[in-house]
Structure formats: C-alpha cells, structure tokens
Amino acid sequence: MKKKSIVISAIVAVAVLGSICFSVYAVSDEPKDSGSFMGKMQQVFYNIGIIDKQPVDYKNVYAIGKDIVIYSDELQKIVDKYRISDPNFDEAASKEKAYNYLLRREVEYQAAIDKGYTVTDEEIQDYVNKQIEWSKKSEQAGGADEFSAFLQGAGMSMEEYWQSQYDVLGKELLASKYFEGVYKDFLSQTKSEDPYEAWRKELDSIVQELINEQDVKILE
C-alpha cells in the first residue's frame, strides 16, 4: 500500500510540474496537429527552425504569424526604452509603435531568409562597430540627446548597448541585403520623377503585402 501511494504521489507531482512548466522542448518531427491553437504555434516554430534547437516559451509569445513570432519580453524592452528616453511617453502609443517595428522587422527578415540570404558573424560584428561609430559621431554633433538619455537611464555605455543588440542587428543586416537588391531593380525600372519617394511607397507596399501574407494574430 505504501509503495502504491508513493507511485501515485510521484504521478501527481509530475502532473503538477507539467502544468506549471509551460515552456517545453518541441519535438523534432513536424507537428501533426495543425488545427488546434497549440498545434498552430508548434507549426510556426517548426517552420522558422526553433524546434529542436531551444525551449519554446509559449507564454512569452505576444503575436504569431505563418512564419514569424513576436515575443512579449522583447516588445516590453522596447517600450521600456521609450519610457526612459521619451519625456512625452505614452504607454499605449509606445506599445503600438514597438509592435509595428517588430512586425516589420520580422517580416523583412523572413523575406530575406526565404530568398536564401545569409550573414556571417564577421559581417554582423562589423555592422555593430559601424553603429557604435555612427552613434559617437552623432553624440559629438549634439544630435543624440534621446539616445544618450536612454543609455544613462539604462546604466549602459554605448558599446555595451550596441553589443547587446547583436542579434537584432543581424536580422536588420540580413533584411537590408535582400532589399538592397529589390531597391536597385526598382530604380532601374521606375520612370518616376522622384524615384526615392516612389521607392518609399513601393517598399511600404511590399512590406504590407508580407504582413498580410503572415496573417498575424495578437494573443493578448
């Protein structure tokens, strides 16, 4: 009887831990149940290559699309950045601004991946160094007040901040590689008297189409 009660207690403990630990390792096989909510989330993680590489924290997902995921903690970090640097900070407006930035970044990044573009660690580090150099020049010219206020509020040096943005800059660099080619093709074909304004509108149109294709759902 005592042995049986121990087994039952162990089963209950596992069940409780399972309900608490919402962050799970996804299986390496492609998800079979794509109709349910959890099945759809697993399918997205499978599509973008997260499955079988790292734990999937479903509770941290703010929005999800066909091939992209926007995480709540990254969204909040951007909102916090606005809170520190913007004297006219508005929570709702800042959250929408942060979401729109992340949405655009992720669809552009995914488009570059779909086209087979890649970046090396050396290219990303070079890009990080250029951001540091540009920021220093801007600060010396007196044009980086908000950024300086953010760094001071966050207790970070300029170098520390840009190094912390390594993965983000990698995504932006990859996207810029792809869209640079699209931009050159557009300029070679456009007959607009103002090609740069025409490109801005064309790029917005391309990005909006990419967003529409993702069919993004906000989970909050």
Average pLDDT figure? 79
Q: Write down the secondary-structure element order.
A: HEHEEEHHHHHHHE
Q: Span between N and C termini? A: 47 Å
Please indicate the percent range of residues in DSSP E strands (runs of 2 or more). 5-15%
Unreliable stretches covering 5 or more consecutive residues: 1-38, 48-53
Main sheet: which strands, in order across? 4-3-5
Total strand segments: 5
Fraction of residues in H or I helices: 55-70%
Describe the sheet with the most strands: 3 strands, antiparallel
Walk me through what this model shows:
- This protein has 220 residues and is mainly α.
- It has a domain at 72-218.
- 68% of the residues lie in helices and 6% in strands.
- The protein has 9 helices and 5 strands; from the N terminus they run αβαβββαααααααβ.
- It has helices at 2-20, 37-47, 72-85, 91-114, 121-140, 145-154, 158-164, 166-189, 195-214; strands at 23-24, 56-57, 61-64, 69-71, 217-218.
- The strands form 2 sheets. It has a 3-stranded antiparallel sheet, sandwiched between helices.
- A hairpin with a 4-residue loop joins β3 (61-64) and β4 (69-71).
- α5 packs antiparallel against α7 and α5 crosses α8 (166-189).
- It is globular.
- Mean pLDDT is 79; it is low at 1-38 and 48-53.
What tags apply to this protein structure?
220 residues, 9 helices, three-stranded antiparallel beta sheet, mainly alpha, globular
Sum this structure up briefly:
It is built from nine helices and five strands. With 220 residues, it is mainly alpha-helical.
Chain-wise SSE layout:
Layout: H1 2-20, E1 23-24, H2 37-47, E2 56-57, E3 61-64, E4 69-71, H3 72-85, H4 91-114, H5 121-140, H6 145-154, H7 158-164, H8 166-189, H9 195-214, E5 217-218
Antiparallel strand pairs: 1-2, 3-4, 3-5
Helix pairs in contact: 3-4, 3-6, 4-8, 4-9, 5-7, 5-8
